[in-house]
Design goal:
The structure holds two protein chains of two kinds. Chain A is mainly β. Chain A has strands spanning 3-5, 10-14, 19-21, 24-26, 32-38, 44-50, 56-58, 64-68, 73-78, 87-95, 98-103, 107-112. Classes of the chains: A mainly beta, B mainly beta.
């Protein structure tokens, strides 16, 4: 079964600074990889996804993620964080012919002025 | 274009009661998945419905059941509620086929069991 690990429970970053959120997955074949963001009291919004092809994926809100097969990682980055990026971020993995997504436990991002 | 809508947004039940949560998928989507998100955790897959049938189920007991209607909307039913069922229940819709993994989530129904 696939699993997802987000090593950082909480990250605090200054507005304007860069952000990187880590995600490691366990799955034998090439997975489908996703990053979602959840604001307080809200559902999850898809930031970006990777199915195949170019390993650097661009998403919404200025986010990008890089798939590194050798490290089983799919880290999320943003060059310059805005106060509105304060939220919880979830990495998720899926696979071919399997309809469920397995989510990590999430990383809470706090943005300080 | 309406996204995924869920009702009710909040509800409180007591142990042993039954609850029904409702979900209308995003326009054009024909597949509905349900997830349970306990406080401080990531969502856990309950099941997915397609063509009015349960297509895949996660590791949840039979107390959790669902239904999909011809208009693609869906219900999640939980019987014999336990304290541990307190969570945010998220509905997600998608397209069948290659897009089945690309989920659009609703805002959720917050269930508190006392």
């Amino acid at each position: 079964a696939q699993s997802v690990t987000q090593p950082d429970i909480h990250i605090t970053v200054s507005e304007g600074a860069s952000l990187e959120l880590r995600c490691n997955y366990s799955y034998g074949a090439t997975p489908y990889l996703f990053w979602y963001v959840q604001s307080p009291g809200q559902g999850l919004q898809l930031l970006l996804k990777y199915f195949s092809g170019d390993t650097l994926v661009q998403g919404i809100k200025g986010f990008e993620a890089e798939f590194k097969r050798s490290q089983s990682s799919f880290n999320l980055r943003k060059p310059s964080v805005h106060w509105s990026d304060a939220a919880e971020y979830f990495c998720a993995v899926g696979r071919v012919n399997d309809y469920k997504l397995s989510f990590g436990a999430g990383t809470t991002v706090t943005v300080r002025a | 274009d309406a996204g995924v809508t869920q009702s009710p947004t909040h509800l409180i039940k007591t142990r042993g009661q039954q609850v029904t949560l409702r979900c209308s998928p995003k326009s054009g989507h024909d597949t509905v998945s349900w997830y349970q998100q306990a406080l401080g955790q990531g969502p856990q897959f309950i099941f997915q419905y397609y063509e009015e049938e349960e297509r895949q189920r996660g590791n949840f007991p039979d107390r959790f059941s669902g239904h999909q209607f011809p208009n693609y909307s869906s219900e999640l039913n939980v019987n014999a509620l336990l304290l541990g069922d307190s969570a945010l229940y998220l509905c997600a819709s998608s397209l069948s086929g290659a897009g089945a993994n690309v989920l659009t989530f609703g805002a959720g129904s917050r269930l508190t069991v006392l």
